[in-house]
Structure to design on (924 residues):
């Protein structure tokens, strides 16, 4: 499939329709040529700052007419190269579509434009005693989170973005705008096409509106910080906690390097040893007491060296801010270096094994990396780092591939929450087998000209 | 699209491949010609009792060769005519595929054949302290529950079947068998094609294997029974409880008629007034005390006349058995009559309004019906009854259509958990608009000859 790209006539047509909402300024093109993956940047042909669903529909119509690839863009926080444009592409910037269109507190739902960030949504609904639980860490937008099926620390209790999107409006490449899903909490009426677009990374359609689930803010919270002698025993404890009736809100693993990084970056004084952070929440402090005692006992039985409780709101806030900044804190620890993060997710019973395999691999290759994990979900990140162009990178990529291979053999996935983008296309066939061909057929059905974020998610045909 | 059906040559080919696993005995054909909808029965051309995935693949190949429609069948407990075969169809009976292939307690998952029922699965995993939470009431199979996205009383806490299926194997009409999803608890690797087949009622492929999520059995449980002066105030109380941090395991509405029915059918002595049944569960009896007090206070503030607590296991079991048998108990109350159940589901804040609208409609039409609901999800059933052929039926169907119309105007769905089958096809376009056309395109992609459960789910082309 050849695409013409944003040449003279096409650019003229876009300018005629959108005027100053179109930009080809160098700084704008640069800002839309990269994400947070650290992958090689590439400028789009132009950027359109969309303001309305009609803008999106018209942009797709012009893209179809002139065969221009389109890359939906908002916060720019994707981690796998999802936003890096192919030559001559239109970067369709939705970050200005920031209206919270409706909050229905009694229905526990809000309808938003795709450029609304999850912190913005949380500020808008907090006074009603509600919150949106998915917290990928960056100032991500809901459109982007829906497109990568982002999750974060609270997915262990509330599910990922996928489980928290009730309804979508999606603009298709052929001009249709479809309403998918329902505002009811559940539905069995017809094929559930929502899920085709959730996690599709903008390759099947452009999300123009989302109705998401909100949850009541728990009245009481506390967090346990349980220090372990090694990452493996911490992971083992996490699986035991998940098997109890504790129903944690969050269950996170921080390794010694990660804690060193957040201590330095945020001025904390956490002990720099492998640690589980377990958050519990409920209707009252009294209701949490038995669960706290249970979790503490389970962790001590599993070898915890020390268990400390945080109950003050400021203390809890500092903890979770630290967790959310761990990625940036680690980057700050190694200035000038390049980074690569895995996003492996395994069935819980395989977590100790894959973490031990990871540590052994790092040691054998003489590599330094930090391990952080949403371990209640079996999801963990190995954050590799090395100077750009260093010989370490070949060993890092080889170990990365071995980690994916072992993860798939254990029944896991190469991506728990970051998506595929450019970097993980190489693993998709090993993970999904023949189902990749059906994915390709669905792509062809919805985007026969291959204009929507082409070259992402799907591997090249065999 | 014309289909040949199971004529002489086709039947001979099926018999040559499957031998005695094929049946055309009258009693067998009769048993495969109906479900629990009460809709007009129709015999299939023959029944194949499949035992393996290879049986299913070969049956689909023969069906393709001879243009035979195929209706997947198992427990026969669908409620919307999903299992009623078109002329000359093969009823593909999967009820003999009852192997629990693997239980991985440490991963909180089990892999089963599609004919395994949810009670069978629960018996298999109970000793490990685990359970599968979706409980539609009938002795439904997991293949059937996945195909209608069934739910039940515990969906308010644990989600529907959709949220509890991690991975599927699906046989397609073109001979492929695909593995979809992953054994990890979450994944962002590629399009999530699982969800196309979940809720597709056997029209897109045949599920040959499922890997489902299991959950730890809570250590402590109790149930509140809160009596209200009317259904509307009970529904209002349900929305208030959902807004608190109570996280109920179950939140059910029983009306006076429903309670009268289960009292008679099961020998209970529940007060015959509109009642909320609220189940709470947690790590210990102590941990539940504050939540119980909170729920009781909220219900009394919302007008509850009486609140009673059940804590003994036998008492709890009797309660939920009663709820699960309510549909049959109501049928037993009106012997010889025909029944029709709605399956409406609205956003929670619309629940009191639609219930009042329902009561007004029943009164205006002079109709008698019972209202039961999974009201924590906004899902409720109006169980109409009248003698077969009675003039009441025209008024019942008209009121049914008005209830759906109002439900859709409130942002709800015509089916919360039963699926579309034959009866609700008429509402699909009003609910989904143009998205119905994309559903049809997906159907054509996966089943171009329209052989898989034809005439179900999708409305006839406009």
């Amino acid at each position: 499939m050849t695409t013409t790209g944003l040449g003279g006539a096409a650019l003229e047509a876009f300018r005629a329709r959108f005027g100053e909402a179109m930009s080809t300024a160098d700084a704008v093109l640069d800002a839309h040529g990269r994400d947070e993956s650290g992958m090689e940047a590439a400028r789009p042909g132009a950027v359109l700052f969309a303001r309305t669903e009609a803008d999106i529909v018209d942009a797709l119509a012009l893209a179809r007419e002139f065969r221009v690839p389109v890359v939906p863009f908002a916060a720019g926080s994707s981690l796998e190269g999802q936003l890096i444009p192919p030559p001559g592409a239109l970067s369709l910037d939705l970050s200005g579509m920031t209206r919270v269109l409706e909050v229905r507190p009694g229905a526990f739902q809000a309808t938003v434009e795709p450029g609304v960030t999850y912190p913005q949504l949380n500020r808008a609904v907090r006074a009603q005693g509600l919150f949106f639980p998915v917290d990928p860490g960056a100032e991500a937008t809901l459109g982007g989170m829906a497109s990568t099926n982002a999750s974060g620390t609270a997915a262990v209790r509330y599910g990922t973005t996928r489980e928290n999107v009730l309804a979508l409006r999606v603009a298709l490449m052929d001009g249709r705008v479809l309403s998918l899903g329902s505002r009811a909490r559940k539905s069995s009426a017809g094929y559930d096409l929502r899920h085709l677009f959730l996690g599709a990374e903008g390759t099947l359609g452009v999300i123009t509106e989302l109705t998401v689930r909100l949850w009541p803010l728990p009245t009481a919270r506390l967090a346990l910080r349980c220090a372990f002698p090694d990452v493996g025993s911490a992971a083992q404890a996490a699986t035991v906690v998940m098997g109890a009736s504790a129903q944690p809100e969050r269950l996170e693993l921080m390794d010694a390097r990660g804690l060193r990084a957040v201590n330095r970056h945020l001025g904390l004084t956490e002990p720099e040893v492998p640690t589980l952070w377990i958050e519990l929440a409920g209707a009252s402090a009294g209701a949490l007491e038995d669960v706290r005692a249970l979790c503490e006992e389970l962790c001590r039985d599993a070898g915890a060296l020390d268990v400390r409780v945080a109950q003050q709101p400021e203390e809890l806030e500092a903890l979770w801010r630290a967790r959310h900044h761990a990625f940036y804190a680690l980057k700050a620890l190694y200035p000038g270096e390049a980074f690569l993060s895995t996003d492996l997710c395994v069935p819980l019973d395989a977590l100790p094994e894959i973490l031990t395999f990871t540590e052994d691999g790092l040691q054998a290759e003489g590599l330094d990396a930090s391990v952080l994990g949403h371990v209640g979900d079996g999801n963990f990140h190995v954050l590799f780092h090395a100077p750009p162009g260093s010989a370490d990178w070949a060993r890092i990529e080889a170990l990365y591939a071995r980690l994916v291979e072992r993860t798939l053999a254990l029944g896991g996935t190469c991506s728990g929450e970051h998506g595929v983008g450019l970097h993980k296309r190489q693993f998709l066939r090993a993970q999904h087998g023949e189902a990749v061909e059906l994915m390709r057929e669905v792509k062809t059905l919805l985007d026969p000209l291959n204009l929507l974020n082409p070259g992402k998610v799907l591997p090249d045909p065999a």
In short: The mean pLDDT of chain B is 95. Chain B has three domains: 8-96, 100-216, 220-409. The first strand of chain B starts at residue 22 and ends at 23.
